[in-house]
Specification:
alpha/beta; Rossmann fold; Single alpha-helices involved in coiled-coils or other helix-helix interfaces; 5-stranded antiparallel sheet; 13 helices; 14 strands; elongated
Length: 400
C-alpha cells in the first residue's frame, strides 16, 4: 500500500495547495482532515468538496464545536488560564483537539505521516508535533511551509499551475486564527509595535467607545462549569456562543499585547475573546466566594503553570494530567450564580451568590449582629508578629 499522509486541512490556499504538493513529494495518498472548532466561515460540506477537488483521496470533516467547548474551553476556564496574565489561550486550545482527530484519522485510514501548515517561526508547530508525539510517536511529520520553504508566492503559482479550485486573488493584510474561544490577529502593520490597531482589525467585538445600553447577564456555574445564562440551561458551547455575541456587542475582550513565544522571540498579537474574558472574570469571582484561602492561593500558581503548559504545546503531558486532577478537585464547591454588567469594553461583576459560599454576613458585618469575637484578635496579632519581632530584635542587637 502506498504511503498515506493525513493533512490538517483548513480549506484555504496553503492547505489546499498542500494536497497535490504532498502527493508529488511523497508519492502517496492525502487524507484531508478539517475540524470545526467554531471558527465560522464556510460549511463543512464545502470544505470537504474542495479537498476532494484538490486531489485528496479522502476528506474527513468533524463538527467538534461541542467537544471543543466542553473538553478544552471549560478546563481552561476552570484554570482561569491567561498566559502572561492576559492571553486566554485561543489557538493553544484548538491545536490538541485537532491533533486528536488527526491521529484518529491516521488510525482509521492507515496513515503513516501527518502534515500541518505551520511555519518554523510560530508556536503551533510545537503544539502539533508535541501532541502527535504523545498520542502516536510512530507517525512522521511533514511541514511544507517549514521544511520546504513554502512561501505564499510559491503557493499561488503552484495553485495556478495545477488549476486548483481556490481563490488566490484576495489576501488579508493580517494573519488570522479564530475559534469559539476567540480570535487572534497578527502581521501586517501590527508588526510595528508602535502602531495602534484600527477598527478593521476586529470582527468579534464592536467598538467599545460607541454609546449603547449596558447588558446585564447572570451566569450559573456547577462545579466550575457554566451551565446557564439568565436562568436558561445551556451547554458550555451554547453559553460561550451566546456570550461571544453579547459581550462582543459591548466591546468586551480586546487585548493588544507583546508576548513571549515558545520559539524564543517576542511577537505582537491582537486578540478578541469576549466570552472567554467575561467567563474567566465571573469564574474567578465565584472561586473567591467558594474556595478556602490556602487552596485558592495555591491554585493561582497551578493556574499559571497550567496555562504555560498549554501555551507551550504540552496538553498531553504527565504534569498537565496531574494539574487537571488538582483543578477538578478544587472545583467541587464552585457552584452558584454571578451577575455581570457588560458595557464599554468591560465585564464587571456586580453580584454573586452560592449555596457553597464561605462568606458569612454575620462575621463580615460591622453593624449590629456581628458575631466576630474581636477580643481574640489581640493575641492572634501578637503571635502572628512574633517571628518578625524576634528577628528584628536580633538584627538590632547585632548591629549595636
Amino acid at each position: 500500500m502506498s504511503e498515506r499522509v493525513v493533512l490538517a486541512y483548513s480549506g484555504g490556499l496553503d492547505t489546499s495547495v498542500a494536497i497535490p504538493f504532498l502527493a508529488e513529494q511523497t508519492g502517496g495518498e492525502i487524507i484531508a482532515v478539517a475540524v470545526d472548532v467554531g471558527q465560522g466561515g464556510e460549511d463543512l460540506d464545502a470544505i470537504r468538496d474542495r479537498a476532494l477537488a484538490c486531489g485528496a483521496a479522502e476528506a474527513v470533516v468533524v463538527d467538534a464545536k461541542e467537544e471543543f467547548a466542553a473538553d478544552f474551553c471549560v478546563p481552561a476556564l476552570q484554570a482561569n488560564a491567561l498566559y502572561m496574565d492576559r492571553y486566554p489561550l485561543l489557538s493553544s486550545l484548538s491545536r490538541p483537539l485537532i491533533v486528536k482527530h488527526l491521529v484518529s484519522a491516521a488510525e482509521e485510514f492507515g496513515g503513516t505521516s501527518v502534515s500541518h501548515g505551520c511555519t518554523g517561526k510560530g508556536n503551533d508547530q510545537v503544539r502539533f508535533e508535541a501532541g502527535l508525539s504523545a498520542l502516536n510517536p510512530d507517525l512522521k511529520v511533514i511541514a511544507p511551509a517549514r521544511d520546504f520553504a513554502w512561501t505564499r508566492d510559491k503557493a499561488i503559482a503552484f495553485a495556478e499551475e495545477k488549476g486548483l479550485p481556490i481563490d488566490v486573488s484576495a489576501k488579508s493584510p493580517y494573519s488570522i486564527d479564530q475559534n469559539l474561544w476567540g480570535r487572534a490577529v497578527e502581521t501586517g502593520f501590527l508588526e510595528d509595535i508602535w502602531n495602534g490597531p484600527i477598527e478593521d482589525v476586529y470582527d468579534y467585538t464592536a467598538d467599545p467607545a460607541q454609546p449603547r445600553e449596558a447588558d446585564e447577564v447572570v451566569i450559573t456555574f456547577a462545579a466550575g462549569v457554566p451551565v446557564a445564562l439568565d436562568g436558561r440551561p445551556l451547554t458550555p458551547y451554547q453559553v460561550i456562543d451566546e456570550l461571544n455575541r453579547r459581550a462582543g456587542a459591548q466591546g468586551v475582550g480586546r487585548i493588544d499585547m507583546v508576548e513571549d513565544r515558545l520559539v524564543g522571540i517576542k511577537s505582537r498579537e491582537v486578540y478578541e475573546a469576549p466570552a472567554a474574558i467575561a467567563l474567566i472574570a465571573a469564574h474567578m469571582e465565584l472561586e473567591n466566594v467558594t474556595v478556602e484561602r490556602d487552596l485558592a492561593r495555591f491554585k493561582r500558581s497551578v493556574d499559571q503553570r497550567w496555562g504555560e503548559l498549554v501555551y507551550d504545546g504540552l496538553w498531553f503531558s504527565p504534569l498537565k494530567d496531574a494539574l487537571d486532577a488538582f483543578i477538578a478537585d478544587a472545583q467541587k464547591h464552585v457552584s452558584g450564580e454571578v451577575r455581570m454588567t457588560l458595557h464599554g469594553g468591560r465585564a464587571v461583576v456586580t453580584g454573586r451568590r452560592s449555596d457553597a459560599s464561605l462568606y458569612s454576613y454575620d462575621l463580615a458585618t460591622y453593624d449590629t449582629g456581628d458575631t466576630f469575637d474581636q477580643s481574640l484578635a489581640k493575641g492572634f496579632v501578637e503571635l502572628w508578629s512574633l517571628p518578625s519581632k524576634i528577628a528584628a530584635k536580633r538584627d538590632r542587637d547585632q548591629a549595636g
